[in-house]
Amino acid sequence: MRTQLLAGVCSLLLLLAGCEDHKQAAAPPAKPTVSVQVVALKGVNQSFEFVGHIMAINKVDIRARVEGFLDKVLFREGQYLKEGQYVKAGDLLYQIEKIQYQAQVDQAKANLASAEAKVTNAQFQYDRKLQLSKESWAPQSDVDQYKANLDSGKAQVLQARAALTQAEVNLGYTDIRSPIDGLIGRTVYTLGNLVNPASGVLVTIVSQDPMYVLFPISVRDLETIREVRRQAGGTLAKIEIRVRLSNGREYLQRGVWNLNDPQVDQRTDTLMMRAIIPNPDGQLIDGQFVTAVVVERKEKQRPVIPQAALQIDQSGYYALVVDDQHKVEERHIQIGPNRDTDVVVSSGLHEGEKVIVDGVQKVRPGQVVQDTILAAAAGNKR
Prior knowledge:
This protein is α+β, with helices and mostly antiparallel strands. Among the domains are: about 35-45 and about 300-380, conserved putative lor/sdh protein from methanococcus maripaludis s2 fold, CATH 2.40.420; about 50-55 and about 210-295, Beta Barrel (Elongation Factor Tu (Ef-tu), domain 3), CATH 2.40.30.170; about 100-175, Helix Hairpins (Orthogonal Bundle). The chain has helices at about 1-25, 100-135, 140-175, 220-230; strands at about 35-40, 40-45, 45-55, 60-65, 70-75, 85, 90-95, 175, 180-185, 195, 200-205, 210-220, 240-245, 255-260, 270-275, 290-295, 300-305, 310-315, 315-320, 330, 335-340, 340-345, 355-360, 370-375. The strands form 5 sheets. Strands 1, 18, 19, 20, 23 and 24 form a 6-stranded mixed β-sheet that branches. It has a 6-stranded antiparallel β-sheet with strand order 13-16-3-12-15-14, with helices on one face. Strands 2-17-22-21 form a 4-stranded antiparallel β-sheet, with no helix packed on it. Helix 2 runs antiparallel to helix 3.
């Protein structure tokens, strides 16, 4: 009896244990919960940033072309723009004493007059000998001699005229004028100093409006920009150049891309790009370092995702996507610039897809999840 009772109890316990195991096997595992956000399209100007500098379109070092003492300095230093430092093309900057150069001009004029008088006399003598020769009253040798004298006199006239031209040019060089419009710097030589071509730079003039923006760009970035600009039909979208100053503020004027170097620097795999930008207020200064931003002029609708959805591994950037079957998929993507708390997706995602923004650590690709859609942040709506 005891044996039978013990066997019955054991059977009952095994039956109960089997039922409990069946219940546990039948209960599905809990789905991890994640928060997702729908990929949206936003109007975005694609942009690329480079370190660049400002360069004046024209820059002239003024030098003396003749020797002499500075008689006048006819521009003002220490003031800004049109109140003093701004000069125009043709403005008189310096005067070198003229007395010796005016004397050279006068002497050259006298030499020319003397040479011309000799030619006039030689012409008369030649004409008389030629007439006498025709009447057989003078030998041909005399005619030839007077013809040679006439030709020599004409050559001396040419020499005297060239000397006069040179003397007048030297006299003109005593007036040193600005060849361009622009800001003028400080004078190296002051009134009364002796200057000559070996004296070096007297003063420098820098043009102001417009200016150049120069920045090096890698070949890879250049190809990326061209790909972004490429439109249907093979045309390229127009771009503009924006400038951000060293204090972080954006310069209000917009530039136009107008030149790139025809050769790549093989040491750095870069080439120099150039844009032209207005500078009506003189805010940009020659040599100033800036950030050059290459921006599409027209916005395009591009997918954007929250930065919280962006992940990175050794292969690059990726996001976890929840499909229509609530399964997690790893999607590698190419990204563009940031827009507030969003990031632009160049490729790999499409409008309407759901990316995980919260709970990424709890899931893995292929896993079924329970997702909750979050609305876009109010600051990101447009």
